## 1
Amino acid sequence: MQNKAFSKILILIILAVLAGGGILTYQYWWLPKEEAKNHAISEAKIKEISIQKPNLVITGENLSEVKIYMVPTGTGIDPETMSQIENATKQSENNGEQVWIYQYPENLLITNIFAKGFDNNGNLVGRIDLPVIGATALWDALYGIPDETADWQTYRNEEYRFEIRYPKWWNIYELNGQILFQDTPLEDIPNEWFSINTKNDEYDFSSYDFSKEEIVDKITGKEEINISNVNGFRYTFYPKSELYILRKYIILNYKGRGWVLSYSGLSPGLESQILSAFRFLE
């Protein structure tokens, strides 16, 4: 009888230990499984789309796929069924935060671009539209040349009625009727410079001989030019100077005065930008 009683007690103890161990085991493994489960079902989101030439850039979270829709021009177009559809490529991911890119082709003629994001189960989680709509606006945004003069400064002279925009890295000096712009302090030799001078009477283009100017050593070119809707002449020459560097000299007549725009050291692109940024005030 005693052995049977002891056996029953032993069995109960073993069952209790097993049950307790099972509970402890269940509790121990439950937390990490739940955390893994929560991680697995982290919400997928599509956030923004932007143009970073030559790519479309899409940001999101936990996406498995991003599709780009490019809506063609025309009437009666269904964006969902008639768009050109392309897949974006995941560029990077950090703790679920993702960047997707798509390098768009040249010469797209479209009116709208939007992107759709999908989760791990292939379900659509959202759509975002590029905030540029219309064929012309989109073409400019995708392919237009950026305005390199956007941060330039503006000089305005009310006495002589003109203004000019100039690079922000240039200095400006007013010297006895001459307005001088250059990329160095006044006492230093500039790499780039542009000056504006006026005189009290107009040039007589029928008799004017630029070679007679004291500064001229050798003329290499002459051409007609239009500046701010005013016709004149541009001369290219080498000066009588220790710095035997090619210069350009534009002469104009405007409202009874002769004008000289002279410069040196400008690249062709910067030269075009500067001359386009000069204008006479009405």
## 2
Amino acid sequence: MYGKQIKEFIALKLESTSNNTAIARQVIKEFNLEKDLEAVRKFVAYRRGKMEKKGESRHLKRLFADIETSYVYAPVWRAGEQYINPTNIKGEVKIICICYKWQYEDEVHTLTWDSKQDDKEMIKEFIKVLGSADEVCGHNFDRFDLRMIRTRAIQQGVLMYPKYRTLDTLKKARKYFSFMSNKLDYLGHVLEVGRKLDHEGFGLWKRCVEGETKEIRKEALKQMSEYCVQDVVLLEDVFNVMMPYIDHNTNHAVLKFGYSGRWMCPECGGSNVKLSHTDTTPMGYIKRYMRCECKKTYHISNRTYQQFITGS
């Protein structure tokens, strides 16, 4: 029998090497096992096969998300851009709603602040969702959405991780392209995948926050949520068009199969890939560029390419 610690140790090593015998030797040494090397190697091979079989049905848990926030008041002497002393600001910016969807799923989920405009429970629920994602995709997500969620979390005393694996489509647009504008609505327009919903402007936010009656605030919140839902749908569509042209932030294949998946497609985790071309670095290291049937192009080291051609 192999205990839980040994199984976890093997799982860790399977992510870093394809050599089952080497792993078996480490297991015997680390846990002082009085077992034959071949018997341990067979168990390691069995665990690898089990991991790969499980990985075949595993999708990358990519989350698409967007938030809408409230505003604050501050007394000023004149109109125009100016410095406002923080002590003059009345209230705190809150999160009105959070909308999100999982890749490969149709449903867009909506979370909103409560009838008292308290966003604590919404933040607690969404932080659980964030923690279950392999990658979170948003437009200006790193600089705005994630920081705002973290700000409200610390103000509300809700714990969350200091870092999340993200893919910011605004950063990708600025890095890889030269669009006339990098706003999500413009990208959706020029890439011909859709537009943001039209709305009345600041008046919608004002009715949502300061509507004279409960019914007015409720209707405004409904419209705000619909606006946010469309942003999430548009976000995913823009990402899907951009995907073949940008680098990935998460290696799906390694998440699925561990070390043996290093040559596979980092986007879809598929193995139907082929060599596109070969390049070298200034230092003389060989880089192999691969192309997947999902249109993703990526590069791997020459050593990993040898793993690909030998099927190991």
## 3
Amino acid sequence: MSDADPAKKLFAPEPAGPATDPGRLSDAELRKVHAESTGDKEEPTVGFSPIPVAMIMLFTALTFWVAIYIGQHAGGFRWNVYDANWEPGGETAAAPPDPMKIGARVFKNTCQQCHHEDGLGAAGQYPPLAGSPWVAGTPDRAIEIMLEGLGGPATILGNDYNAQMPALGQSLSDADIAAALTYVRGSFGNTASAVDEQEVAQIRASLGARSPMTPDEELRRHPLGQPDNTVAAKPAAVAGNTTTGSAQAAGTPVAGNTTAGNVTTGNAPAAGNATLGNLTTGAK
């Protein structure tokens, strides 16, 4: 093999002494640099590093708290236990939810943006609810407006409006509409009667699917000043004499009497009587 043989040059040992290339490190120098760079590092181990004790205690306390919370508020994981009107510190089964509180929540989430917190609306844009004749009297008008909406020009309390009231029948339940109207009819200085959920359900069924009415169409159905015909508006308390255990006869009309267990008769028709247990009649 000659000196010019490439294989000889490839396998020839490195010459002893300093490297011929000034920028090249020898094997000994490389081992020294590597040892210095890894000297301060921990040796690799098999497995996982131990979790700090404080972290274990934190997760234990958090798990314990979650277990207690779920045990107190899960309702036995029953599907029908959710109640949107539940309030902490009491059981809703003890008393029915307050419709004014529910109505206030529905009003704030749905109506307040236009009619404002004080129910005064915005002149020329959104009509007021405070002292409005559209709110007083029969609730049928307001129920229909909330269910189907209202669109067109109208004059309310001396101001002209032409805004579109959206239909809320698809987004609100009968109970929510009844509660919202109960709140409006009993707030902002209004003193109208409460609205029952059954009234909303009956009107919803009678209307069916239809487009929003105009103010003129709504007023033809329910003129302003139409008396309140709800059950809540009718007197249920004693407004006159009370007769129990015997029949009462009078030569003048009987007004506001309450009779329990017997028959009350008069020579003129009986008006406004509340009868418990038997029949109240009037003779002309």
